[in-house]
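User: I've been trying to design a sequence by hand for this structure and keep getting stuck. Would you show me what you'd pick, starting by listing the structure so we're on the same page?

Assistant: Good idea, let's start from the same input. This is the structure you sent:
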């Protein structure tokens, strides 16, 4: 890194023009051809729901950028679409189809040194962090899951801007370090880090200020809320591919969300082998914390007495909690209650 101090700032010496060009380049990212094909196919199906279209969009950060920008820069106030589902409802599948049909693409099988070699690692990491962060957000009961998913997908767009400004060879020199160490090196070598750069770009796109704030703060030791969830999701995703992540960093990020060691160990074990993507709820959960705990016990096949013992409650109290669950979500029995809660992302 000894040569990056002189080369970085001098290469950016053209000031605003270079930065604007870098922002423009990242604002029109090429997307994975297969991801675009699947999204177009879903848009063409009469039976597709807004959720189906939204999940297809979230398979590629470039698709999410294009759709979120379009939804937030038409008539009306910026930032009105907090997540891709709201963007789908704003734009409708027909508009989304015409929008993504014009995007440049790359393919898995492109030759070495092509766009695929640069873009695919970014796409894969963005999707991995989104997946890990969604689970963290559920465990921490953060709410606003659609907005959190977009912020997680876009958490590293500033790295692409930095590569445009200082050259991909400088960015490559930071590979293999923990996310927080990388941010510290960027601040030391370039005077700015990718989280701040990414937040500036997200604000330019007209997305919700809270999304930009979460991206800007996701490497901060005192991050809270969505920023803290992205911080932990990012660390989990890096740890899953063998990057050196200090255990203390994981514990600190988890503690900010009141996630203990046992739950953290379970997260690290599950990821990235958790299987099919969990459905994220787009409606607030009507259940209390205790009602969710009791229902989770049922989902794990436990009887009332076991649930009561684990929660330090009486059997009659557990029974009351579960009757309240059935009433609130319109379930007729325990099996239906568990299915409804899983489908809506509450378990």
């Amino acid at each position: 890194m000894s040569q990056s101090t002189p080369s970085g700032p001098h290469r950016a010496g053209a000031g605003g023009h270079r930065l604007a060009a870098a922002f423009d380049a990242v604002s029109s990212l090429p997307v994975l051809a297969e991801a675009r094909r699947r999204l177009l196919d879903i848009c063409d199906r009469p039976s597709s729901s807004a959720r189906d279209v939204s999940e297809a969009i979230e398979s590629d950060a470039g698709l999410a950028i294009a759709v979120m920008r379009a939804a937030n820069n038409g008539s009306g106030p910026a930032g009105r679409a907090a997540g891709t589902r709201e963007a789908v409802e704003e734009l409708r599948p027909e508009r989304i189809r015409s929008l993504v049909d014009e995007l440049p693409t790359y393919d898995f099988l492109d030759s070495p040194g092509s766009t695929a070699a640069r873009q695919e690692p970014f796409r894969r990491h963005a999707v991995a962090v989104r997946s890990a962060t969604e689970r963290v957000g559920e465990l921490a009961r953060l709410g606003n899951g659609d907005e959190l998913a977009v912020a997680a997908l876009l958490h590293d767009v500033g790295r692409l801007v930095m590569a445009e400004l200082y050259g991909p060879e400088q960015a490559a020199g930071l590979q293999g370090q923990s996310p927080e160490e990388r941010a510290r090196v960027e601040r030391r070598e370039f005077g700015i880090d990718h989280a701040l750069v990414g937040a500036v770009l997200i604000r330019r796109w007209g997305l919700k200020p809270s999304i930009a704030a979460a991206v800007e703060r996701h490497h901060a030791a005192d991050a809270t809320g969505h920023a803290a969830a992205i911080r932990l999701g990012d660390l989990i995703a890096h740890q899953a591919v063998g990057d050196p992540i200090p255990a203390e960093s994981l514990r600190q990020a988890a503690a900010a969300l009141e996630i203990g060691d046992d739950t953290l160990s379970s997260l690290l074990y599950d990821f990235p082998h958790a299987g099919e993507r969990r459905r994220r709820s787009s409606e607030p959960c009507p259940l209390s914390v205790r009602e969710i705990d009791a229902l989770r016990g049922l989902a794990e096949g436990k009887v009332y007495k076991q649930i009561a013992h684990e929660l330090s409650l009486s059997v009659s109290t557990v029974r009351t909690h579960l009757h309240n669950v059935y009433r609130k979500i319109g379930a007729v029995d325990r099996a239906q209650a568990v299915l409804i809660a899983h489908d809506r992302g509450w378990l």
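That's my pick for every position. To get oriented when you compare it with your attempt: DSSP finds 20 helices and two strands in the chain. The domain at 289-343 is CATH 1.10.10.10 (Arc Repressor Mutant, subunit A).
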